[in-house]
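SAMPLE LOG
Freezer: B-3
Tube label: C17
Construct: single chain, 192 aa
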Amino acid sequence: MTSAELSNRAATHVRGRAIGAQIGGVFGAVFVWINSAALTPSIRVPLLVIAGTSLVAVIALSIHSLRRRTASVTTTTGRSPFGWKYWLIVGIEAAALVGGSQVLTALGHPELGIAWVAVVVGTHFFALARVFRLARFHVLGAVITACGLAGFVIRWFGQIEPIAITSGVLTGFVLLAFSLWAFAPMRRPASA
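STRUCTURE (predicted):
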């Protein structure tokens, strides 16, 4: 592979990481915003400030990363890091979100909607881990799926209010934390 091809591949990776982190950051902030609505202002406001600050940091790191990479690359392929496999996964995720939420509502458990969303969002990261070849997504998928399943367990014990915190707010902060982690240096395997 030529140095120009390696440079283009690196630029695509940086662009994908930045866009992916921004997507995760925005959805994380939305999870916190929506699911903290029932909390008292003395609890909710600090959570929103932390989520908002984290999102601003993700966006700033993304811009910095893109500018630094663009300055060192003279040509790019213009190819999106999000190909047909990504969109297939997102389509399946959307269908599962809508279908599962409708089933839960029909069964008389609309309060489990956020737990279902967390389970679906979490499991979709396992497929994305393979598509993007990012082991970090396996960890992210496991943590978010666990947050979603915790909501079902909470409901099984007869509680409703903690579901939004466990499956919603906590999931939002997990997404924000992993979006920030996207900019941490990745260890390269030692060459033999």
